[in-house]
Amino acid sequence: MKAEIEMAMNWIQVGKLEDIPRQGSRVVNTIKGEIALFRSVDDQLFALNNRCPHKGGPLSQGIVHGRRVTCPLHNWVIELETGNAVAPDVGCAHQHEVKLEGSMVLLGIEI
Ligand code: FES
Question: Which atom of ligand 1 is least distant from the CA of 59?
Answer without folding.
Answer: 2
